[in-house]
Amino acid sequence: MTPAQLVKVARIQLVNARMVLGLPLLVLACVLAANIVIFMAIQMPGEPAITGALVSVYIVTLVTHIQTMTQMFPFALGISVTRRDFVAAAGLVVVGQALLYGVIIWVMALIEGATGGWGLGLAMFDLPFLQESNVVTQVLVYAGPFLLLSFAGLWAGIVFHRWGQLGVWVLGLALGALLVGLMALVGSQGWWQQVFDFFAETPTLLMFAGYPTLIAAILAAATYATSRRAVP
Amino acid sequence: MSAVSLRGVTKRYGDTRAVDDVSFDLHENRIHGLLGRNGAGKSTAMRMLTGQEVPTSGQIRVFGENPYENADVLHQVCFIKESQRYPDIFLARHALEAAAMVFPNWDQGFAERLIEEFRLPVKQRVRKLSRGQLSSVGVIIGLAARAPVTLFDEPYLGLDAVARQAFYDHLIADYAEHPRTIVLSTHLIDEVADIIEDVTVIDRGRIVMDDSSENLRSQAVTVSGPTKAVEQFSDGHEVLHREDLGGFTRVLVSGVPTDRETASLQVEPVSLQQLVVRTTQFHDAALAGAGNGNGKGVRS
To answer: So where does this one cross the membrane (chain A) (predicted)?
Structure first.
């Protein structure tokens, strides 16, 4: 697989870039507008306000990448693209998109700071638990969850494409069972305090960029493995 | 030389053998007809030789290499199928732009002429295209890609007769200028009979016919006349189909006995469609273990 080939397949995935890259940003803009309107209506004067609406753009990105595998993947295989090239190119698109969105959110956070929280003291981008001291790590902190959720979307998408709704249910239940099992283990061993300490003490960069990237890498490998025997 | 070869290829889904120990070649720079009934295994065979499915057993070679996940080989292969779906976010032109990026021999000027001719609304959402317009997206990609191996699997569902003829005309004209290996898989055998040079018929996952259409047509005739004379004529040859009416008999016989007495008989050429249909029925009847009332599947 040459870099040129990889870029070519990535361009196929972005042939309608306006939709792929633009839609999540459009949703973000709408959500911001909606939040400004809502907080103008309800906010008590002088009280700072925090909204979790930023999560919307992450969710939309996850959904678009489910469709990358359920719709773009079968089309690409139909025009003679290999699974390996497609998944590698999807990874390239996801990483680029995560960094692009990371920068955009960083810019939005700057605007938010400069306008005194959109004139309302509203914090939607510059969230206290995400703050970093320099630009690079700040962008990475915003980008990390995009990586994680995008690769999760790719994997969920290929699982759905191969095994349908049943496959997604089984996967979801299996992950749920794993989580419950872990919680039971933590409970029985009396490790809850250490778990809370872990979340409290892990540096923001590691929490929002380091670990998500690690998990994203595992999800990328799972996506590739699942795609090997997928048919368009 | 063969561009594509299948050797002992089997594809099983659970208990069903969609393709059962199939061997055939697609010769370089020829137009092949891959024919057979619904569910005969044609599409499965094409999906395997384009690397989209993996055979359960057997060997597939495209330009001497295994096509599965082989980008160098696959870029030489264009597979247009009726069931092709396009991403919901696509306009018609996005599908063509994507294809233009993949296929090295893509001819943009040719694609634009075809868009004009098939009246494809390129700025329309793919989801809003009619069945026929969707088919023209595939046909345009298949022709303009100029892939050394191009497969059309029922490419023209919903296309009107004029558009189908336009497809055939362009296919022949472009093939003459840019020879390549073409596979046409269709149920409209009469329409493609004059185009296809080699015929492969697949039934219940097995090859029942594989020859040049010239050979096939020269070997088979319909003979009618008094029963006794017809039986004498066809003696020792494969009777694919037989109809009796009073003392009068009509048979479709393959392996033409040229030296036989034909004075009291009427001998007519057989259309490719008839030959394919009767051969398939004959094969089915033989598999069922007995002839059916209409087509007596017996070797005389």
So the answer is: 20-42, 86-111, 139-159, 166-185, 205-226
Q: Does A41 touch chain B (CB under 8 A)?
A: no
For residue B298, the model assigns a pLDDT of 43
Domain range list for chain A: 3-227
- The CATH architecture annotation of domain B2-204 reads 3-Layer(aba) Sandwich (3.40)
Pairing of strands B181-185, B149-153: parallel
Cα torsion angle, B8, B26, B139, B71, sign? positive
CA A148 – CA B105 distance, rounded (Å): 38
ipTM for this prediction: 0.89
Q: Which range is least confidently modeled, A26-40, B117-131, B257-271?
A: B257-271
Comparing alpha-carbon positions, the chain A residue that sits nearest to B92 is A16
Q: Which of B85, B91, B102 is facing A81, going by the closest CB pair? A: B102
What percentage of chain B exceeds 70 in pLDDT?
94
Domain ranges of chain B: 2-204, 219-288
Options 3.40.50, 3.30.70, 3.30.230, 1.20.1250; CATH of B219-288: 3.30.70
Instruction: Give the nearest partner residue to A80 out of B53, B75, B87, using CB atoms.
Output: B75
